[in-house]
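To the wet lab folks,

You asked to see what we're planning to order before we commit. Fair enough. Below is the target structure as tokens, and below that is the sequence we designed to fit it. If anything looks off to you, flag it before the synthesis order goes out.
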């Protein structure tokens, strides 16, 4: 029987976690708040805008600091997308800082979908920034699964997904 997985949150682990999003035009702040709560239910209180009236010129930046990632990480394990998560979370890694996006519409459904570089999906994204010493080791631990005993992974290895999000076929034919 395998040992239970370690439950990481990013908080009190030497990391700073910031989640940002932009609310524009007729986007409904209440719906975006629901998406945020689905992934980050234990985050500090955020002042979300109310439902706008049409026409709306709103263009707001929302930021939450010290956001626990435990629910997000649990969803990654439940969805069994840990290798994808490692690739997406580490794609923009620079020293001890990374930034990645998750789509807000998927979050409303309780799912995690990573944004592709240069693509802004309908419904917008949450930008997640993580910084701190030992970030690479933390990302590997946060996305660990038993299959890595058979197929080891590292950030940026030859098993990583392509820049356009396509899976790399790494097995021999």
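Sequence we intend to order:
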């Amino acid at each position: 029987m395998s040992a239970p997985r370690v439950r990481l949150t990013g908080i009190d682990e030497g990391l700073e976690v910031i989640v940002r999003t932009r609310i524009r035009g007729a986007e409904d702040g209440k719906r975006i708040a629901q998406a945020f709560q689905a992934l980050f239910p234990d985050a500090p209180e955020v002042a979300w805008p109310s439902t706008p009236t049409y026409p709306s010129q709103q263009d707001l930046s929302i930021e939450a600091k010290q956001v626990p990632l435990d629910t997000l990480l649990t969803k990654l394990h439940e969805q069994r997308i840990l290798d994808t998560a490692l690739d997406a979370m580490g794609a923009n890694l620079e020293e001890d800082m990374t930034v990645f996006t998750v789509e807000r519409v998927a979050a409303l459904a309780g799912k995690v979908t990573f944004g592709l570089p240069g693509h802004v999906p309908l419904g917008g994204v949450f930008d997640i920034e993580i910084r701190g010493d030992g970030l690479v080791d933390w990302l590997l631990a946060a996305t660990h699964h038993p299959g890595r005993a058979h197929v080891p992974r590292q950030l940026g290895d030859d098993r990583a997904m392509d820049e356009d999000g396509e899976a790399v076929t790494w097995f021999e034919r």
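Structural context that might help your review: The beta strands are 16-24, 59-65, 97-103, 125-131. Residues 16-149 form a domain with the 50s Ribosomal Protein L5; Chain: A, fold (CATH 3.30.1440.10).

Thanks,
Computational group
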